[in-house]
Amino acid sequence: MSPTHDGAAFYERALRVVADVEEAETLFRHAAAEPSGRLRVDVPGRIGRLIIAPALPAFLDRYPQIDIDLGVTDRAINLIEDSVDCVVRVGPLGDSGLIARPLGNLTLINVASPGYLARHGTPRTPDDLGAHWAVNYASPSTGRIEEWEWSEQGASRSIAMRGRVTANSAEAYIACCLAGLGLIQIPVYDVKRHIDAGELVELMPRHRAAPMPMTLLYPHRQHLSRRLQVFADWLTDLLKQKLLAAE
Predict the structure, then answer these.
(1) Which of 47, 49, 40, 36 is nearest to 70 (CA)?
(2) H-helix or E-strand containing 39?
(3) pLDDT tens-place values along the chain, 247 residues long
(4) What strands lie across the sheet with 201-203, from one edge to the other?
(5) By C-alpha distance, which of 90, 141, 123, 49 is closest to 244?
(6) Nearest in space to 86 (alpha carbons), one of 107, 110, 64, 103
(7) Which distant-in-sequence residues (6+ apart) come within 8 Å of 122 by Cβ?
(8) Which of 130, 77, 98 is nearest to 219 (CA)?
(9) Which residue from 51, 156, 197, 218 could staple onto 86, CB 3.0 to 4.6 Å apart?
(10) Is 23 within 8 Å of 37 (Cβ atoms)?
(11) Could you say which DSSP state residue 243 is in?
């Protein structure tokens, strides 16, 4: 026998309620009680793999009574329906009724592989883009293909680029660029090691897209659990140090 989907969701929420009650009791028993319980966290794929996962051992050593369920996806999820404690979102936010903690802005750069540039030439300004190919990026949530963007005299401009390949994950997007299939726009941290290794080259540095906001979101609660508070503080410091400092 196995529970229904609703039964499994109820069980997961019940576990969190029990953990919250137990944690509340410890606050009255001992002012310095260690935060405890399980946290469900969801983050973009490459941030989870490159930044958070390698740093988790230090967090778990510091808080031995906290366990982490780490969800890694580029698709936007519903915190309430999926019983997630907090998420990291990159890009503009809609009106969701969630608590938002700004983490900073990610610088976007334009890059291509040396192989692509040797074959198609190097664009110097956005006026040259009509003669070039892009690896198109489709939102994993909506399927909409993102246009090529840049800032000019304080205004944001964009065009639809021609492309023979469309990717819906950052991993595939970068892999296609490395393979010489076209230009991409990507946060600096995503490709810094490829640039340092000479595998990718930055293009049109004076015509970058506007920076993308990075935000930590969690449900609206009058009192956050201590495990969520300490994790949110740790994650905020980690991302600011590893992502924003890389720029």
Answers:
(1) 40
(2) strand 37-43
(3) 556 756 655 655 665 565 555 555 555 544 457 888 999 999 998 899 989 999 999 999 999 999 999 998 877 777 777 788 889 988 887 756 788 888 888 999 999 999 999 999 999 999 999 999 999 999 887 889 999 999 988 889 999 999 999 999 999 999 999 999 999 999 998 999 999 999 999 999 999 999 999 999 888 765 678 899 999 999 999 988 887 655 5
(4) 184-187, 108-112, 201-203
(5) 90
(6) 103
(7) 112, 203
(8) 98
(9) 218
(10) yes
(11) I
Per-residue tokens: 9: 């969701």
Neighbours of 204 (CB within 10 A): 18
Task: Note the Cα 20 to chain centre separation in Å.
Answer: 27
The residue to which tokens 């005299």 are assigned: 153
What residues does 134 pair with on adjacent strands? 183
Q: Which residue has the tokens 């983050």?
A: 43
- Contact criterion met (CB below 8 Å) for 181 and 154: no
**Residue that is written with structure tokens 């890694």 in the block:** 72
State both tokens at 243. Answer: 């992502």
Q: Under DSSP, is residue 239 helix (H, G, I), strand (E, B) or coil? A: helix
- The amino acid sitting at 45 is G
Q: What are phi and psi of 22, to 5 degrees?
A: -60, -40
- The CA-based angle 38-43-48, given to 5 degrees, is 95
pTM for the predicted model, two decimal places: 0.78
CB 216 within 8 A of CB 88: yes
Token digits for 127?
A: 């006026």
